[in-house]
Design a protein that fits this description.
With 252 residues, the protein is of the alpha/beta class. It is 34% helix and 20% strand. The strands form three sheets. Strands 1, 4, 5, 6, 7, 10, 11 and 12 form an eight-stranded mixed sheet that branches. The chain has a two-stranded antiparallel sheet with strand order 2-3.
Length: 252
Amino acid sequence: MYAAAVIVAWAVAGSGGVTVACILVAAGTGERLGVGRPKALVEVGGTPIVRRAAEAVAASGVVQHLVVAAPTWLGNHVGRLCALPAFDGRDQLVVVSGGLTRQQSVEGALTGTPAEADVVLVHDAARCFAPPALIAQVVAAVRAGAYAVVPAVPVVDTLVEVDEPGSTVVGTPDRSRLRAVQTPQGFRRQVLVDAHLAATRRGDQDATDDAGLVRRLGVKVHVIHGADEAFKITTPQDLERAEALLAAGRLR
Ligand code: C5P
């Protein structure tokens, strides 16, 4: 029932070309990074993380609208950092105030996406080295017919499930079927809107993965191969790794 309604909407949109908006969530405090300021403004190789992420989105060549969720008091500054030629047209760059959780930041940014956007990407600014080619591949997979697309990479560690206190192993999932999901994740806009509405109705507030919310609607989530460069900068070690890889010419 749900799927049929979305397919009809997509067929109509598809006849007139596809508009793509990218939500860039950049409102995290960066507490685990321990630098005393929002992570999005931390510089790697002399360029703030949020600027690097916006540059990669622009370089993908497939995104027409950028909606950035930024810390409220830094909206203007973040807007200036993301003001790239690719987004200098009317309504092409929107900055909204982020929420207390990532889920709330995505939800707020969704309201800033233009109604004519058929495809919406959700991307962590903290994954600022995600290659433009990966961004284009996610969009291509949605355009090819998927409702939801996630880039993912195989996990190298064996992962275990633990009990509530975390002191006893209760399961060891087969590693060959586990993946670490990355961003950007891509969605047909209405699917993402519905997933967030359903999450809010359930009382969820801190979902960290949009594809997980979409899956709870019963919608199939398509997996494509992710990129090593799309790692998330979370800890001081991640930042050191990013600086070292940049210095070695292994990141753009
Ligand atoms: O905290 P974590 O690194 O998992 O956050 C992932 C992304 O979500 C980051 O780019 C961060 O800026 C963003 N975020 C947000 N609003 C929040 C929390 C996180 O935009 N309240």
